[in-house]
């Protein structure tokens, strides 16, 4: 599978890494996520009812870009979406999603493809979402125009990713620090030395320009901070301290509408 530029280095490496993660933990954790009723965002499961970043779901056609084990799409289908198509590049992740989709009989459509060039028909969705999927694993200069292509006019794109500040404070190996660890100039592709994964994190100004150039107007952007009861969440500790996330945002969500 090739990206538009012909570069496949990060696609293959990331697929390999997600195949491993599926065997190590995501296959085991997915049933818990699928069983959850409430839509909630990110590592700390911030309830959608608190942030209100999704449009009305009733009757909508949804594509999830980098759907992983498919739990987010399952929540959207239960929330009223007419059709949910999950796209992912890793067969092992899709196998987990297919198993749980069969168990719950939700009728999600699961497609193995690169979210930067899905091959799905243009203008066939009302909502494109990504929760740590294409939003961090795909080249933004490819996946955001692809999301725009897939959406009907007035369709919305909603995605969640790490905060830019947390990425600027993350060293090449190790956890988030209280000082800047890398320049913002040129921030986008990040090749991690320890995991051999590649992520993408365009900074806010670049992301705003890219969204607008791709035909979106920005409706909202929200940053998540740790709340008083977040201290025992495993996310804090593994990647950053809870004290850090009480002062600076750990995750951020964007909502945009296709003009
Ligand atoms: C954190 S998971 C996805 C999120 C989902 N909410 C979950 O936690 O199961 C990241 C997913 O992105 C997928 N992915 C990475 N690169 C991709 C690409 N180029 N196209 C589509 N999916 C990709 C991985 O295979 C993995 O399943």
Q: Span between N and C termini?
A: 30 Å
Shape: globular
Measured as a percent range, the helix fraction is 25-40%
The count of helical stretches stands at: 10
What is the chain-wise order of helices and strands? HEEHEHEHEEHHEHEEHEHHE
Estimate the strand proportion.
15-25%
Main sheet? 7 strands, mixed
Going across the major beta sheet, what is the strand order? 5-4-3-6-7-11-10
What would you say this structure looks like, in words?
- The chain has 259 residues and is of the alpha/beta class.
- 36% of the residues lie in helices and 24% in strands.
- It contains ten helices and eleven strands.
- The protein has a seven-stranded mixed sheet, sandwiched between helices. A two-stranded antiparallel ribbon has the order 1-2.
- Helix 1 (9-35) packs across helix 3 (71-78).
- The protein is globular and about 45 Å long.
- 41% of the residues are buried.
- The model is unreliable at 1-5 (pLDDT under 50).
- The site of S-adenosylmethionine has 21 residues, from helix 1, strand 4 and helix 5.
